[in-house]
Amino acid sequence: MDDESADYLVVHRQLILWPVDENGLVQGEDSYSSGPVSVTKLSFDELPQEYIDLVHPSSDRATRS
Questions:
Q1: Which of 22, 26, 41, 54 has the fewest CB atoms within 10 Å around its CB?
Q2: pTM summary value
């Protein structure tokens, strides 16, 4: 990360296993992840409005680059 105040899209692959018994009930959960596949710095205009409202509530989209 070259900018700690920026927003980044982190992509990773994850496998989730749910063992199911003979009655169809989930008995547990295991997950495995290989770590980040890619990390991309996003511009403010690339962020969804819902994300901006949650993470940057006092920001004005027009004033950010």
A1: 22
A2: 0.60
Helix ranges (DSSP H) in the chain: 49-55
Chain segment 8-56, per-residue pLDDT in tens? 999 999 999 999 999 999 999 999 998 899 999 999 999 999 999 999 8
Q: Output the CA–CA distances (angstroms, integers) from residue 31 to 10, 17, 35, 36, in the order listed.
A: 18, 6, 12, 15
Beta-bridge mates of residue 14:
33
Q: Give which of 45, 44, 34 is closest to 10, Cα–Cα.
A: 34
Residue 44 tokens, joined:
């403010």
Cα–Cα–Cα angle for 53, 11, 62, rounded to 5 degrees: 30
User: Quick one: CA torsion of 29, 12, 35, 40, rounded to 10 degrees?
Assistant: -150
